[in-house]
Amino acid sequence: MKRVTNIAEDKMLCHLDRVVGEHKPITADVFLTNYCNNKCPYCTYRRWELDSGSYAMKFEDFVQYAERLRSLGVLGMIFSGGGEPTLCPDFGRITAWMEEQQFHYGINTNFNNLVLFRPDYLKVSLDAWDEDSYESIRGVRKYGRVLDNIRSYVEWKKENSPDTTVGVQCLARSTENVSRFYEANRHLDVDYFSFRPVESTAGKFYGSEGNEGQKVIELIQNLAASDSRVVLNFKWNLLKRREKDCTAQWAQIAMNEHGEVMYCCHKPYQIVGHVMDPDIMEKKAKAGTDMAMCDIPCRMTAPNMFVSQVQCERKDVYFI
């Protein structure tokens, strides 16, 4: 049965050949820019010192890097990152090339800019319920503009890209912000509303006193019971899960706007090499990381759990 949302914890089941065979990267997280038109205080990349000068990947460089990623085994790209991808001056040329190549891609965006393109999915980080809350959460007053852009895109895609899945995302800090977000935005004609938990170093947020983690989960489940578009992000099941090793690290490759390969998209400060290095996969495989500095919950936790289970040695395997 085909899932209607791209948010799922069991996608590694679709890549068993790579789990038990050659560990080739499945997904590439690609940062097209290192600057943004929002000023979100919770943004992961505000915690690290990135390049001081603004920079966007050029089309010619992107094509070279994309071909290299494809040769490494990458099947799909996510345009996201330390900046807003739609601000890249060559964004239109890049997405057109991806579509001509029939290369699967998705985008995570604040959608302050209306762009018409044909990705596998479009996920809009909205978070707010009015102009004041948008300014408080995302640093600018663009709530109305984003809603207009979503409506315009949905109408356009019905004729031009009907297979594109459109979702709206909310960072669920409390029951109040979940309720207000849903009531204000439920009228949008989107495929799903994703409520994601707060990601914090070593999971500190949900270890703090007074957090509403369990109450938020229950509220989202109640909303989902009456609206099938509401998605309880699988990360909610992993709030207390901390892995010893990133065993599925090979399944993703993260590249910044300069073509540098990061350990993962959550650690832009840890550069392991350049995508064009002949031995980049060897460098990536040898790179270690401080798991105590990892965000919890992390999108890689579920793949890590799956790969660890598959690789676990068992006694008497001949007796089912």
Please trace the helix and strand order, writing H or E for each element.
Answer: HEHEHEEHHEHEEHHEEEEHEH
| Mean pLDDT score | 90
* Individual helix count: 10
Termini separation comes to: 27 Å
Shape: globular
The major β-sheet equals:
10 strands, mixed
Give the strand line-up of the largest sheet: 8-6-5-4-3-2-1-9-10-11
How much helicity do the residues have? Answer: 25-40%
Structural class by SSE content: alpha/beta
Number of strands: 12
- Report strand %: 15-25%
State Rg.
20 Å
Low confidence ranges: none
Write a brief structural summary:
This protein has helices at residues 16-20, 59-72, 91-100, 131-138, 143-160, 175-185, 204-207, 213-226, 280-286, 301-311; strands at 27-31, 76-80, 104-109, 121-125, 165-171, 192-196, 200-201, 230-232, 252-255, 260-262, 271-274, 295-296.
Describe the structure.
The structure is a single chain. 32% of the residues lie in helices and 16% in strands. It is built from 10 helices and 12 strands. The model has no long low-confidence stretch (mean pLDDT 90).
Helix and strand layout, with pairings?
Blueprint: H1 16-20, E1 27-31, H2 59-72, E2 76-80, H3 91-100, E3 104-109, E4 121-125, H4 131-138, H5 143-160, E5 165-171, H6 175-185, E6 192-196, E7 200-201, H7 204-207, H8 213-226, E8 230-232, E9 252-255, E10 260-262, E11 271-274, H9 280-286, E12 295-296, H10 301-311
Parallel strand pairs: 1-2, 1-9, 2-3, 3-4, 4-5, 5-6, 6-8
Antiparallel strand pairs: 7-12, 9-10, 10-11
